[in-house]
Write a structure and sequence with these properties.
Elements (H helix, E strand, L loop, with lengths): L6 H12 L3 H14 L7 H16 L22 E5 L6 H8 L17 E7 L2 E7 L10 H9 L2 E7 L5 H14 L2 E4 L14 E10 L6 H12 L11 E2 L21 E3 L8 H12 L1 E7 L6 E9 L4 H8 L3 H4 E7 L7 E3 L9 E7 L2
Parallel strand pairs: 1-3, 1-4, 4-6, 5-6, 6-8, 9-13
Antiparallel strand pairs: 2-3, 7-8, 9-10, 11-12, 11-13
Helix pairs in contact: 1-2, 2-3, 2-5
Length: 361
């Protein structure tokens, strides 16, 4: 059976041969493995790619003492990592700059961003990491960049509502992801969760920027009808979203995977930015828990961020790795039956709970 290798695979293969560091080689191999057709004729090629990646990770070929790094890797922070994807001048840098402390470069010319720029936005007291990335074009994507989208928690696709080619921008972004075996879903997914056909599922949201420009509302409505969440109608604040657990519809574009939530925003006026951050928080599916020392008021300034479903034991581990072994019980204000109720280590916590840990010794 012929392999029928795609142009994206061949481009990644060429980049692999030209790579100078192990980090670059691994990124290219990951790209090749994602793009290669999944059928019996490529099973040996897939196994070879996996073997090469394993060898590079276990036995680096660089000189002793040499430091190699992936220039597109951003260490995750906050409650989750949201990485922006968009074509040149789509408004993503302005969005990150407005929402966070990131030192982004906003220009009137294309490709003003040359590398990843992380910043921390906040939904109430919850930090959410936003990462501005260099712009992409359907025919030109640096292989190493895609690893950042594969490993983040949410892909935020930004399109310019003031541009004449807004629809083409969105289709171009979806094409880039589809060509690299990624399909979009509304719900939170695992880091390498795949469907039955082997596509990597990526949690996503589509954001139309510059909605303060005349005509932007009509453009957003058109996008929503074509790509927005099934059954969702735009709210008065310009969002068209679904709950993180909503399934996609049969009418979703094959290149998209399923319909995902959409928001229209303006970095200039701040319109709808608070609702966008609230949606990101809900989609990350985390809770905030506050710690209280016995006999003292709770510390409400910096919450512990935990996955939904976390227990008292998980909370103790987050405070200090030795605390679970010393934990006798805990008192909880919030989800408990009454304030300060004594609970055991398997008690499941809820958002905004206050926890007082009681330890031995």
């Amino acid at each position: 059976m012929p392999a029928n290798l795609s142009p994206e695979y061949k481009h990644a293969d060429e980049a692999y041969r030209a790579a100078k560091t192990d980090a670059e080689r691994i990124a290219c191999l990951e790209e090749m493995l994602a793009c290669i057709p999944k059928h019996k004729g490529t099973e040996k090629m897939q196994a070879d790619l996996k073997t090469r990646m394993a060898k590079l990770r276990e036995h680096p070929t660089g000189h002793a003492g040499a430091r190699q790094r992936d220039i597109f890797h951003v260490e995750p922070g906050g409650a989750g990592q949201v990485v922006l994807l968009g074509l040149p001048n789509c408004g993503k840098s302005a969005l990150v700059g407005k929402l966070s402390n990131a030192k982004v470069t906003v220009t009137d010319y294309p490709f003003g961003t040359h590398g990843p720029v992380p910043g921390m936005a906040h939904h109430e007291d919850v930090p959410i990491q936003l990462v501005d990335m260099p712009p992409i074009t359907p025919g030109s994507v640096v292989p190493g960049m895609m690893g950042t989208y594969r490993n983040c928690d949410i892909v935020l696709i930004a399109v310019d509502l003031a541009a004449p080619d807004t629809l083409e921008q969105l289709e171009g972004c979806l094409e880039v992801l589809q060509d690299r075996n990624m399909l979009l879903v509304a719900r939170r997914t695992g880091r390498d969760e795949r469907d039955a056909e082997g596509h990597q599922l990526r949690t996503a949201v589509i954001v139309g920027t510059k909605d303060d420009v005349p005509g932007a509302a009509d453009t957003f409505e058109t996008l929503r009808e074509l790509y927005g969440s099934a059954g969702a109608s735009p709210s008065q604040d310009g969002s068209a979203g679904a709950s993180p657990s909503q399934e996609g519809s049969a009418g979703a574009s094959p290149s998209q995977g399923e319909r995902v939530p959409m928001f229209s925003v303006s970095a200039n006026t701040g319109h709808n930015l608070t609702d966008l951050l609230a949606h990101l928080f809900r989609t990350l599916d985390v809770i905030r828990v506050y710690c209280k020392e016995p006999g003292k008021p709770p510390d409400m300034n910096v919450p512990f961020i935990l996955p939904r479903g976390s227990t008292i034991s998980d909370m103790a581990t987050a405070v200090h790795r030795e605390f679970p072994e010393r934990l006798k019980h805990a008192c909880v204000w919030g989800s408990a039956k009454f304030p300060g109720q004594q609970v055991q280590r398997d008690h499941v916590l809820a958002d905004r709970d206050i926890v007082e840990l009681h330890l031995t010794g």
